[in-house]
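Sequence design from tokenized structure. All designs in this work follow the same two-part layout: the structure record, then the generated sequence. An example of the structure record is given first.
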């Protein structure tokens, strides 16, 4: 039994290493939500899921790999990244079960995680550059980016959103 647990743990770490390597190799600028993992785990019914996903470990791996590669990592305030409309800024409250962002103000409809990732990236860019154009390849991922051991391509169409930086700015 202990051996099985160790095998799972190793597979998970291996996946997180590969995923963080992929992110750092492909993006110069990486924006993460600054989630308080400890607090989330203590107060959340999602505790087991959050720990299983290795979210904190992924951020740690990506950060030190980015430092070595000269990429930049920013952690941003996670408040309202899921709720705010990434198109017009209108706040659209959602339950965790709602997977779609539908804005009654501007009519934008998109995946909840995609909407959040655009907001996280924008917050990160504002934080880093004061809004000036700088990076060319960027990666943003929020609570929706749940690593799965089954994924073959970490940033494909399975919950990870890659957002070309230039498409985000007018
Ligand atoms: Zn809107």
């Amino acid at each position: 039994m202990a051996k099985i647990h160790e095998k799972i743990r190793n597979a998970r770490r291996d996946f997180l290493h590969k995923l963080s390597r992929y992110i750092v190799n492909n993006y110069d600028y990486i924006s993460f939500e600054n989630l308080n993992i400890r607090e989330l785990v203590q107060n959340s019914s999602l505790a087991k899921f959050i720990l299983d996903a290795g979210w904190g470990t992924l951020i740690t791996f990506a950060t030190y790999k980015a430092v070595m590669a000269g990429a930049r990592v920013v952690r941003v305030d996670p408040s309202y990244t899921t709720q705010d409309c990434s198109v017009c800024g209108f706040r659209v409250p959602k339950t965790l079960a709602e997977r779609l962002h539908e804005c009654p103000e501007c009519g934008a409809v998109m995946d909840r995680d995609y909407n959040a990732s655009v907001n996280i990236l924008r917050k990160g860019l504002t934080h880093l550059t004061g809004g000036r154009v700088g990076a060319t390849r960027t990666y943003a991922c929020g609570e929706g980016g749940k690593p799965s051991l089954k994924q073959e391509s970490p940033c494909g169409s399975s919950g990870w959103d890659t957002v070309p930086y230039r498409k985000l700015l007018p």
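The beta strands are 29-33, 72-76, 100-102, 109-111, 138-141. We note this feature because it recurs in several other targets discussed in the main text.
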